[in-house]
Amino acid sequence: MKPINKYSRIITEDESQPSSLAMLYGAGFNDADLRKAQVGIASSGFEGNPCNMHLNALSELIKQGISAAGLKGLVFHTIGVSDALSMGTAGMRYSLPSRDIIADSIETVVSAQWYDALVPVMGCDKNMPGAIIAMCRLNRPSLMVYGGTIKAGQYEGRAINILSTLEAYGEKLAGSINEEQFRGIIRNACSGAGACGGMYTANTMAVAIEAMGLSLPYSSSNPAESNEKKEECLAAGAFVRKLLEKDLKPRDILTRASFENAITMTMILGGSTNAVLHLIAIAKAAGIDIGLDDFQRISDTTPLLADMKPSGKYVMNDIHLAGGTPRIMKLLLEEGRLNGDCMTVTGNTISENLKNVRPLDTADAILRPFSAPLKKTGHLQILYGNLAPGGAVAKITGKEGEKFEGPARVFDDEPSAIEMIRNNGIRPGDVVVIRYEGPKGGPGMPEMLKTTAALTGAGLGKSVAVITDGRFSGGTHGFVIGHVTPEAYEGGVIALLKDGDLISIDAVTNTISVQVPEKELEKRRAHWQAPDKIQYGGVLYKYRHTVSSASEGCVTDAFVPAAAAAGASAQKTKILSDAVKN
User: Fold this and answer.
1) What is the pTM of this model?
2) Which residue of 27, 353, 367, 377 has the fewest CB atoms within a 10 Å radius of its CB?
3) Is 473 a catalytic residue?
4) CA angle at residue 258 from 253 to 264, to 5 degrees?
5) What is the DSSP string of 154-193?
């Protein structure tokens, strides 16, 4: 059998690397440790966010399991950003860029330290796709552990969550709740550790990653503070050992079919629009061609079954209580909706993993039966038209209708829209346009959850539409269209809109257009200038000047095909090439 420490042995078994050995002895290694495969455990744990505050403790459990498997686990850390904490502020501009920083930092540590395998333990929206992008770039035996979901909060006899706080703000503005109730909701919304409970972006991505085969079964539905999550962490080491022995890597697991499984699960469960950005970005890192039209193709034939928050009433913990994500996957497998031949990090295929799992009974009410779906096609729709020739992403569950037409109310940033809502300036039938919030224009493509939640709380959630070149949170619901491409900052048609322009949105024909003659649009374009927005330095400067469009996943790097990468590696680092061969 080939050695499973094929990377770390470059510094542990080469006598010309005495400084490497000295550093490892100094870090507490003994002679036996030097012969073990080294596993990097990447934690995005930090104290300021319920989604992430328990991850360092989980990483220690993972380390225990890795040690029990005869491997050497080494914990390191990467950053995290709390979307809910920064929502509606300039801090949200750093959320999507954090995905790339996370990917870059994990890639950097694992490559520089010569780790043989990787186990990221992640807990929030951008942590997970960032970690998976790094896993694809590194292409070493890896699996991801999801930090798990939070339990629902309780207030005045009803279950609440983080979205409840933002909607409560709109309710307070509308006078439907008082100050004491507003504060009560805020104090009780977050019950402890774990990611936001509905089918928001964190849980959407956790389910998608499990469906792609890159996390262990049940990882997406095991709650953060459950015994099952602790057991999963302890078990990870044995599976990492198996991956090392099989030399089974992320790009061996990921195929078009595995991405199609992830998209299907996203559609069935009513997942976040952010899944479009993240899955396209992950596919690019894996060298697989997945684009907007793949989402529409799958949406056309995949019904929305799950009555999950934000538009429904169930949360991820309810899926756990009903038996976990694998029971949903088994139901879809039996219905011919999943490809069971896809390999997973267990070393078995999806079909093999699900062999002894009972399918979820749709009588549990979390899922509607295929014969009576919430919506006959998927809730994520890709729209094109003169307002979005490069595409836009709509989240239409059917509860808000499938067509909308109304006059534009145009805002050059989200705070201006919030101020208009606060002053009761938005009327039923309006199409609220928030622009210059795209990946370059933001910069950082912030989410508009504060706007949509305020509209919902104010009683306007079903009577207005919102379009933006920014993003929407997984917690958003209503008639919303984001990711409008080209974005305003690059002179897209959204930059040319004026108050009163008639906008038509049709989620049946998948079109989004403004009823303004082309000659008038060209006249406006001739007088358009990019606004003199704040010129950010640092991270946001780099992001603005390197990021691709939303339709391309907002990536800041380019995939190097495996063959070319291997050739470059052989030229630059012959010792690595020789070690891999041996």
Assistant:
1) 0.93
2) 27
3) yes
4) 160
5) EETTEEE-HHHHHHHHHHHHHTSS-HHHHHHHHHHSB-SS
